Amino acid sequence: MSMRFTAKARRGMVALTVAAGLAIGVAGCGGSGGDDKKPDSPTSASRTNGSDPSTQEGQSDQPLAELKGSDGLLLQITSAQRDTGGFVTVNGTLKNDGAQTAAIPSALSGNETEIIRNGRSLGGATLVDPQGKKRYYVLRDTEGRPLTTTGFSTLKTGATLAVFMQFPAPPTSVTEVDFQLPTFTSATVKISG
Fold first, then answer.
1. pLDDT of residue 39
2. Where is the composition biased (Polar residues) (predicted)?
3. 120 with 153: CB under 8 angstroms?
């Protein structure tokens, strides 16, 4: 009889511990504290004028590079940040500088079947280390989805879209890489971090 009581008590303690952990996790993920007002104002400003990317940690007001694409598309790379997890995150803004709504070229997704199956993306982007003579492709999750902005097909005139791409990190000695995206010009980008 005392073994049943002990087992019940243990299950109750485990359930209580799990519930407390989940409550703390949910409270930690909530984001309506008073300090959250600062990041909202640059984002709101960029939505109002439609041309300036928001300034985020590791990003400057001046883009690291501007790449011109077809149909008036312009990609401004605002940061290329090396993360401790062994990857590089490239952030930027895709803008339609053309006179009419631009259809996002399917070539931006690249030509790999696994990436194309997941819809329009920037999965065709690569980083090239010219010294090490290596090319780094966009990372994928365990289900084959590219770790990049996805799900867009058109961009209206003057509209902007914040974009990101994640790549495996080149060796720490590599501080500059060539960024390439199908249908766009290429550019040299400095990696920070």
1. 41
2. 41-62
3. yes
pLDDT tens-place string over residues 73-97: 999 999 999 998 899 999 999 999 9
- Number of separate domains in the chain: 2
Residue 44, both tokens: 């709101």
Tens digit of each residue's pLDDT (9 = 90 or more) over 169-187: 999 999 999 999 999 999 9
Separation in Å, CA 80 to CA 40, 83, 144, 186: 22, 10, 23, 15
Range(s) of the domain holding residue 179: 59-190
Residue 126 sits in the same domain as residue 179 = yes
Q: Are residues 90 and 169 in the same domain?
A: yes
3-state secondary structure the chain: CHHHHHHHHHHHHHHHHHHHHHHHHHHHHCCCCHHHHHHHHHHHHHHHHCCCCCCCCCCCCCCCEEEECHHHEEEEEEEEEEECCCEEEEEEEEEECCCCCEECCHHHHCCCHHHHCCCCECCCCEEEECCCCEEEECCECCCCCECECECCCEECCCCEEEEEEEEECCCCCCCEEEEECCCCCCEEEECEC
Residue 66 sits in the same domain as residue 107 = yes
Both 8 and 83 in a single domain? no
